[in-house]
Amino acid sequence: MAKSISSIFEESGCLSEKQLTDYLNGRMNESEMHSLEAHIAGCDFCNEALEGLMQVENKEEIPVIIKQIHNQVRRDLKAHRARRKKVKMYVWLSFLVIIILIILLVAFLAEYYAIK
Amino acid sequence: MEPAKSPYYSDGELLEKYRHEHHNGWLGILLDRYLHLIFGVCLKYLKNEEDAKDAAQQICLEVLKTLPRHQVVYFKSWLYQVAKNHCLMELRQSGKMHLLPLSAENEPESVAERDKKTELMEMEIKETHLHQAMEQLNDAQRICVALFYLQNKTYKSVSAETGFSMLQVKSYIQNGKRNLKTIIQRMEEEEQYPHETKKS
User: Fold this and answer.
1) What is the ipTM of this complex?
2) For residue A61, what pLDDT band results from cuts at 50, 70 and 90?
3) Quick one: A81 and A112 in the same domain?
4) What are the tens digits of pLDDT across the range B6-30?
5) Interatomic CA distance for residues B54 and B39, integer angstroms
6) Alpha-carbon distance B82 to B88, whole Å?
7) Chain A contacts of B57, Cβ < 8 Å?
8) pLDDT tens-digit series, residues B99-131
9) Which of A5, A46, A69 lies closest to B53 in CB terms?
């Protein structure tokens, strides 16, 4: 059935990994293919991603590749968190050392002037 | 609440939570949402699976470092620009790309410009404007846009019917849609300020 012409400018959410792999592996019916193509006609991000994913030789492997990147990013995130925690700890430690030094200095000066 | 056990949040809500709680887990959910698109964009530009994997990973770290310094409103558009710029920078550094002169066509569209356009397109579009605008498209764009949007055909069917290649069909539809937006915006401006537009 013909749609209203205004549907040209309808917006839809970005494509999921499953939608993209289903499209690339020919697992979509005509109506699903049309919806996906209508989205990429207006979304540069999805359009360029689809162009890139088309270059993967074995399209069935795309989810595996994404999972690998996901795991690596998680490891990076964890390391980043650990680094931040360490930096925070060093900041507190330095702060504590400075406070102790100030207390010692004040005590020393108090003692010095008391003797004088 | 722990990010991993959270219900579905919009990009904006996740950004807000990340800014409020400073927990990278929220950003992790956001990046997960677009990881396949980041990898796809990297592969498009770098043309090598291993390079694209590394680049996608680096982009995620770059986002992690730079996001706190930026007031990002539309995460998706911002992320796309970060990913694209990262790839272009890599290509430049490896000498695989010559610098393109900045022109309206190859200059990255800023988020503000995009918002302005979306805002304009969100206004009620008169069907008469669209029909008039369609008349101003070239034949190839008009035929492809009409078959695709009005008859719900897929790229494959449009390609079979018109004899254009799939890539040509894709490009005619995308450019046709973009041109329609521009023509309609011009028509609306002319209607709003008829004298100024004529003078200029």
Assistant:
1) 0.72
2) very high
3) yes
4) 568 888 899 999 988 888 888 888 8
5) 9
6) 10
7) 69, 72-73, 76
8) 444 443 444 444 445 554 555 555 555 667 788
9) A69
Cα–Cα distance, A23 to A15 (Å, whole number): 10
List of chain B residues whose C-beta atoms are within 8 Å of the C-beta of residue A53? 36, 39-40, 43
Which chain A residue shows the shortest CA-CA distance from B59?
A73
- Does the domain made of B3-97 have the CATH classification 3.90.25.10? no
Domain match, A40 and A75 both? no
Do A97 and A80 fall into the same domain?
A: yes
CB A30 within 8 A of CB B154: yes
Q: Is A72 on the interface with B (CB under 8 A)?
A: yes
Residue A83 or B115, more confident: A83
Closest among B33, B5, B30 to B15, alpha carbons compared: B30
Same domain, A92 and A65: yes
Structural domain contains residue A5? no
Domain containing residue A46: 11-55
In three-state secondary structure terms, B95 is coil
Residues A48, A99: one domain? no
Residue in A68, A72, A45 with CA at minimum distance from that of residue B58: A72
**For residue A48, what is the nearest residue in chain B, using CA coordinates?**
B41
CATH placement of domain B121-199: 1.10.10.10
Assigned domain for A1 exists: no
Do the chains contact at A46 and B37, CB–CB below 8 Å?
yes
**Which residues in chain B touch residue A15, judged by CB atoms under 8 angstroms apart?**
37
